[in-house]
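Repro case for the chain-ordering regression, as requested:
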Amino acid sequence: MGRRARKAAPLGIVLQSGGSLHRQIWQQLRAAILERRLAPGLRLPSSRLMADELACARGTVLTALDQLIAEGYLVTRAGSGVSVAADLPDEMLVPPRSDALRAEIATTEPILPRRTRALLAREPSPVPAGEPPIAFPIGQPDRTAFPFPLWAKLLEQEWRKPAWPVAGAAYPFGHPGLRAAIASYLGESRGFACGSRAVVVTSGVRQSVALLARVALEAGDDVWIEEPGYPGMAASLAAAQVCAVPVPIDASGFSTDAAMAMAPNARLAVVAPSHQFPLGTILTLQRRLALLSWAERTQGWIAEDDFDGEYRYSGRPLAPLRALDRSGRVAYLGSFSKLLFPALRLSFLVLPVSLVDATERVLPSISTPAPLLGQGALARFIADGHLAAHLRRTRLLYAGRQQTLVAAVERHLAGLLDIAPDSGGMHLVARPHPDFAPGFDDVAAAAAARAAGVEVSPLSPCYGAVPGRQGFLLGYAGVPESEIEPAVTRLRNALTSSKHEYISPSP
Amino acid sequence: MGRRARKAAPLGIVLQSGGSLHRQIWQQLRAAILERRLAPGLRLPSSRLMADELACARGTVLTALDQLIAEGYLVTRAGSGVSVAADLPDEMLVPPRSDALRAEIATTEPILPRRTRALLAREPSPVPAGEPPIAFPIGQPDRTAFPFPLWAKLLEQEWRKPAWPVAGAAYPFGHPGLRAAIASYLGESRGFACGSRAVVVTSGVRQSVALLARVALEAGDDVWIEEPGYPGMAASLAAAQVCAVPVPIDASGFSTDAAMAMAPNARLAVVAPSHQFPLGTILTLQRRLALLSWAERTQGWIAEDDFDGEYRYSGRPLAPLRALDRSGRVAYLGSFSKLLFPALRLSFLVLPVSLVDATERVLPSISTPAPLLGQGALARFIADGHLAAHLRRTRLLYAGRQQTLVAAVERHLAGLLDIAPDSGGMHLVARPHPDFAPGFDDVAAAAAARAAGVEVSPLSPCYGAVPGRQGFLLGYAGVPESEIEPAVTRLRNALTSSKHEYISPSP
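-- result from build under test --
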């Protein structure tokens, strides 16, 4: 038995070797008081006596007692030594829960509020642990093309000896160097000039849209969004207290006429003209000009989400709305997370110039700044030309993957899924073949595919209230060339072997 | 004149040397169409003819024409060559704004919505550029104590060759390594065990509170918050659709009895027991146990904000509520931004165990994940003992600065401001001396101080609707020892020379 393992000490204290002695005394006395083994008002032995009994220094005992006095468990009065506090609330002075009871707390579902239960009911069941799916996640860039060693070096250089204004401030608008690099990059690659003061760094496209709505719109204003579109966009707009009005797109993209018929007083249009999400439609020039004309005429605003604008494999990118805008009504939105790597979580918003001054002043009170940690390194990455080089490399890579995916689907999924090439983007839309389509449920089919190890995203949740069209989104950008065909054959096997799970019988 | 500067080309195109030729043709033709110099329906000369006139390769002209066809400015019909599109909206076909007009757009204040104008009216005027204030910002740690070179090395190691699951995922709960490091650190330093699954990494204390409210409470539920407290807390709770009820604290801190009298059906209490913000009050043990008893009895929740819990200069930290909690009702909140450096923007929330499963499933749809970029490096920083070492160093540093500040205020501001030492924290509260207090307006006085180059935060805005108490918060942690006394004398000069600006005459 070690020198410090003693039994039968006063007050039931047992000191173990290892760990600080005063901490052990403090913890055990506190437990004894809370468990009522030491009654309220009880006077404790003198510190000298306790130290003798415990065979430790008197200072050790005093340290523990001082802490318990400071915490209110013990009280001290001149001439009467130290006693257990008399005014501890009765109902707390009961034995602590046993480990078994603690485990019960941990596993009992608490009475959750209705709104959380409603959310739970909408969530898919937790995915069983196992092999991660091999393909086709959307929004994922290639896993190996990004130059992480260079990125790590830029981070190291940025943080080795940062200026305190960088390390110590929140920068609601983002790192000044990054704002300047984005402005200059847009001038070169997207053909419009903007000052860096108009650039706000955000942590996502939805945050960009919500921020614009918060500054430019009145609470309750209508906002046109594309249908189908991002599943979360309506919720982000609701958080800015404006009302999303989904406008069905057609083969030419978003139609201002259709939108006017649905919500004539809308004050903002959220559109993705270069490559609509999820369908990939390109907004025609006529439609672009009609939308700009609406904005100029009504002093409305346009949020131009340049989704996938960087990835075009045939033809050149069309001029963005912002480059055609003559009256300062267009906010331009971009994101780096899908171009570089998702954990980066940096996007940006180019404000209409007339909103810059007001936004600068109100931003700190309406928005959480984007994380600053990677912004300086990203500024260098862009300014030194690495972004342009990375986009050139991945454009070739993704164009090849898209071709491989189209060929594999046509070869292995004929009669099940129809697919068509797209002039741009990072995913394709596959639709059930007409023979196969009746009763097709894309959400259930995606679950069957996931169970077989292939991740496909159902199309119908991109529609709001209306019953959406059925299909899959197949992200190919992040899937190595060699994994595409095996994943497609696995998808075929999953779809053919489990039809009863996702095809409802004809009525 | 260079070989490529030619005049009198067809269609008004003038090619300049430098810059790609097909881009110049494309831009100038587009402008000519939009400015109606080329009328809708007009047939263009053949590409061969244009190439001859411009003395460039025919392929160059074709590239430009193809782009304009793809964009919809030009149309092509078999046998009839290329024409300007006939269906461009009339109202867009006007000359573009001149530069002067563009500048006018930039400077004209747009018609902002009422809610943005209301925000603007509440914001202080932009601070005039000049010397940054020398002291006393709140929430700022020391500028030089943090080991940035080590931090940069950890970042570099983390990102040199990251596992793709780290770089490619959003991690709604945070980096697994950081969650484990936080759980282990809390066990050692704050005396309670928690599994890493209960730890959620967030980007701020307000986000932590909002997240808890969103999962655990029904929309419209009452939430007790401390009065005075964080200015933004009520707004964060409102964003989670619950109602903040400010409960005035007294010398013992938050009172459950007072809170019950104000809002008996509250479902959550947000408290800072270790060092109340902004007053520094320590919640007594009796009050802690009474609050825990309320939570157990009513199945209510407690959000324990351990603000400044790491910085105690006398006595040892009291046991947090979470360590006393026997029924799993306490969520524990901490932050690294004030301990290390503000740009880090990483905080955490330890969930009550019974909420872990539900939160894991609903989190991705209700919350933006905290930035991942620094989380791996922070995990290493904590696990390797650097956090504990940094806290030991800065604790000594800050304790010294607090003493210096108290001495300087007593020496130079006697009769103007009263100050008392605090057993912990990173700021002190200074109140107007009784002789000086009548008519004192802390917001106006802080503005006068800032104009003189000293930053002090007014106390009264920490109160909600009720007229708050007057005073200043003086952050000392981030102010080098040698700057404290000069800043205090500068503050004295500002306060004595501008009394008319912030003391209203007696009625």
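Ordering looks correct now. Chain B is about 40% helix and 10% strand.
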